[in-house]
């Protein structure tokens, strides 16, 4: 009875949950019905209810595919490169921006580093294709001026992953720093005043107050990031890669796109996507457990 009275007395707050819950049900949970395709020999004309049930055959096909293991390796490598190289950079950017005292200059810098996030990958891919072109690209012109020979960056497996990491960092570093900037803003100013009285300089305050103050947010963002370990940036890669760099650039997302839409093998591509989701779920659970055990902090 007490819970019922509480509900009726705060019904306006519960009513505000309706749009969010409806969104989750409509766009997150309802499409999960399509997982059944992974266990069928799906026929586009027969639909889910009219397709033959074949059990785990698609998964056996998946794990016996040499191409999939190459794709899986590429996905892990690209994601790990992005985590190791790119994850710390927004933290550093947030720490440095926090030290800027001239507000006009600070806002200009923030606008510059935030702006690439609002560009689509199609625009960014076109920009870097022109910059890295072997005929008249700015980068190769500089290489030639320095006495080198032009490099075909976007069709060379030796450079393609590095280009993916660099462009992802250029696009998202400023945007990802927003979370850490907000976390820094929540640190009590009295701590800085006390440290200043004790003689701590700006660098010591950054290392001993600011950085420890945002550790919980860093852990949260890291756990969420490793949950997307098998999401190496499908949209980015689709706009930049080509058959010559499938060896190093083809990832699970692009593989699903090529097989599912290119060859219309919907059952196999659904099986690959389901495998991707299950592995991501397991990783985020393990990451949260390890964080709770060794760092004393976790999402739940």
What does this structure look like?
There is one protein chain. With 300 residues, the protein is mainly α. The protein has a single domain (36-294), classed as MetI-like (MetI-like fold, Orthogonal Bundle). It is 69% helix and 1% strand. The protein has 17 helices and two strands. It has helices spanning 2-9, 11-15, 18-29, 57-63, 66-86, 88-98, 103-114, 121-131, 138-145, 157-185, 189-197, 202-213, 215-226, 234-240, 246-249, 252-262, 266-294; strands at residues 40-41, 52-53. The protein has a two-stranded antiparallel ribbon. The model has no long low-confidence stretch (mean pLDDT 87).
Q: How are the SSEs placed, and which strands pair?
A:
Elements: H1 2-9, H2 11-15, H3 18-29, E1 40-41, E2 52-53, H4 57-63, H5 66-86, H6 88-98, H7 103-114, H8 121-131, H9 138-145, H10 157-185, H11 189-197, H12 202-213, H13 215-226, H14 234-240, H15 246-249, H16 252-262, H17 266-294
Antiparallel strand pairs: 1-2
Order of secondary-structure elements: HHHEEHHHHHHHHHHHHHH
CATH hierarchy: architecture:
Orthogonal Bundle
Strand order of the largest sheet: 1-2
Question: Helix amount, in percent?
Answer: 55-70%
Structure class:
mainly alpha
Structure summary, number of beta strands: 2
- Largest sheet descriptor: 2 strands, antiparallel
Mean pLDDT metric: 87
**CATH domain topology:** MetI-like fold
| Radius of gyration based on Cα positions | 24 Å
Roughly what fraction of the amino acids lie in strands?
Answer: under 5%
- Supply the CATH superfamily name: MetI-like
Low-confidence stretches: none
Characterize the overall form.
Answer: globular
Give the termini distance in whole angstroms. Answer: 29 Å
Q: Which class in CATH terms?
A: Mainly Alpha
Question: DSSP helix count?
Answer: 17
Total separate domains:
1
């Amino acid at each position: 009875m007490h819970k019922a009275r509480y509900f009726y007395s705060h019904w306006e707050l519960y009513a505000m949950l309706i749009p969010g819950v409806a969104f989750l049900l409509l766009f997150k949970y309802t499409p999960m019905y399509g997982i059944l395709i992974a266990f069928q020999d799906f026929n586009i004309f027969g639909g889910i209810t009219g397709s033959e049930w074949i059990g785990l055959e698609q998964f056996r096909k998946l794990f016996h595919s040499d191409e999939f293991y190459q794709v899986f390796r590429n996905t892990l490598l690209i994601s790990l490169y992005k985590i190791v190289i790119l994850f710390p950079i927004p933290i550093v950017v947030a720490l440095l921006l926090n030290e800027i005292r001239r507000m006009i200059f600070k806002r200009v810098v923030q606008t510059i580093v935030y702006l690439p996030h609002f560009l689509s990958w199609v625009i960014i891919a076109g920009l870097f294709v022109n910059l890295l072109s072997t005929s008249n690209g700015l980068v190769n012109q500089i290489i030639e001026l320095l006495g080198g020979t032009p490099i075909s960056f976007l069709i060379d497996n030796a450079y393609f992953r590095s280009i993916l990491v660099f462009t992802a960092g250029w696009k998202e570093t400023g945007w990802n720093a927003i979370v850490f900037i907000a976390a820094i803003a929540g640190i009590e100013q009295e701590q800085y005043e006390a440290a200043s009285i004790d003689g701590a300089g700006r660098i010591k305050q950054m290392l001993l107050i600011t950085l420890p103050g945002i550790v919980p947010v860093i852990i949260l963002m890291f756990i969420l990031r490793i949950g997307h370990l098998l999401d190496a940036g499908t949209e980015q890669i689709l706009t930049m890669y080509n058959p010559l760099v499938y060896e190093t650039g083809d990832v699970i997302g692009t593989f699903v796109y090529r097989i599912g839409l290119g060859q219309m093998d919907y059952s196999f591509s659904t099986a690959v996507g389901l495998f991707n989701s299950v592995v991501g779920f397991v990783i985020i659970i393990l990451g949260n457990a390890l964080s709770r055990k060794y760092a004393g902090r976790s999402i739940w």
